[in-house]
Amino acid sequence: MRFIFKTKYSQDINIAKHNGDRFWYSLLVLIMVALPLVLDDFYLGEISYICILSIAGIGLMILSGYTGLASLGHAAFLGVGAYTHAFLLTNGIPFYASIPIVIIVSFLVGAIIGIPILRLTGMYLAIATLALGFIAEHVFIKWEHFTGGNRGLPVPQPEFLGMSFYDSVFFYYVCLVFLIAAMFAAINILRSPTGRAFVAIRDSEIAAQSLGVNLGLYKALSFAISGAFTGLAGALLAHYIGYLAPDIFNIFLSLTLLLLIVVGGMGSLHGTVFGAIFVGFLPQLIAICRDYLPSTIGSQPGLEPMLFGLILVFFILYEPLGIYGRWMKIKLFFELFPTYKRQTFKKQKVFTKSDRV
Amino acid sequence: MSLFEVKNITVAFGGVKALNDVSFGVDKGEIFTIIGPNGAGKSTLFNVISRIYEPSKGEIYFENQNISKTKPHNISKLGIARTFQNLELFENATVLQNLLLGRHIYKKTNILSEVFFTPSARKQEHEYRLKVEEVIDFLDLQHYRDTLINGLPYGVRKNVELARALCTDPKLLLLDEPSSGLTNEETIDLGFWIKDIQSLLGITIIMIEHDMSFVNKVSDRILALNYGKILASGLPEEIKNNVEVKQAYMGE
To answer: For residue A115, which phi and psi values (nearest 5 degrees)?
Structure first.
């Protein structure tokens, strides 16, 4: 077991808590950078997609995992990001200028939608965001001037830094850089007062308020930040897909994002990457499994959504902390061996909690 | 002139008057205790002061400023901090994060400087931490800095909540049943701390409390409530011998 001897406050503020962190994460980045040497275009494309999902996951994680607000319509923000980006590129705005505009637009859309919608809580908020997803889909269909409607909108693949987005190695690096940047941005938000205010709202609104957190403002801010991350992911997704159609941004994509954060582990940024790997490879896995299943099951078209739903239910029931939670348990098991107790992660029953304040 | 004054506060939930025309004043540097049987309106009074409930009538003054219309999240900026009867800690965060949140009202950074974690954001974290460490030293929480609230015993949690309120650097501290659920030793410690908060930090305290021996030991003045009305108010000695209070509360 590692004991960290703290002599400076900076040690609690820094991202890397000790040299082990620095070593392993640098190694991970090195491996990611070296991947194109080993993998072919197909797998690079898959990993780019996982990077994009992770960025979107960070967005939803900040909203649901850290601020405790459910969203069942987050594909709307992916759509906003994707369409804005495609629209800007079509009108000759270069890539490097388009991305910041996309982030700002999705931030503002998040804030504008967030202010009224976040007066709702719990179940009602979930339903309202679900409705938001449907409304967004219809807006993408009807606002033809901007989105091309049902005909769709081809995404221009401009040159950037002298390279083309058709080049899968280049696109992979672009996604990786944005994922790393998004990760740092999210970590920075979460270790500063705003991030702490989000966690405070999640755990006790009433206490957060009595400590001076403006609930309305911070909930809207959380929605806006979440929108900005997801919008950025949407812009990259536009390049990945190449041709935008409104039905891409449907309820199923929103649920995939939800599955991502639940399976990855609510309330952890590691979880977004674990979850993205999971939901990114799951369709491939299902496709492979189809061949080995009896044809009556294997050829069912609804197999994928059903398995997604089942997995979601199983995770909520048996591993509420997700893959990251499981990883923490395994790590702790070896750190404390042989004195590990299963009870460590059991949620304590609280008998004093009540509605009274 | 009192530091804090409640004037003719009435709170009605439908036909039930939880508080009926309650007025009192608290002087600077005082420890003022509110006692009363269950349902007397003690916690309602606190919730009116922290602006969670809207009073039907009456005004509240803090430092001669009418705070009856202040937004709930601005109350702590004025210098009023509170604890809750049934602990309202941020359970999935560490003690340190809980306490740092107590400094939230002094936040100067905006979202951009936080995204890039500029030197000013880092400096602010250091400043927050200095104050938090002062409070940690004051309340002996050194062992628990990095522990999740989930894993703490009840007595320590109570202590953390008091610490979090102190981190806001309040002028007035509202304590809702600070000794409930504590062991005898912890209650004795709490008594010393409350006295220290009054004398060393110069903070005025309004407290709701049931443990009468504890109340008599630390309070400067006591207010007894029953059915939303003021039964009596005065020095601990007077309250102890007040016939009405004895009937309503002590069961004699």
So the answer is: -60, -50
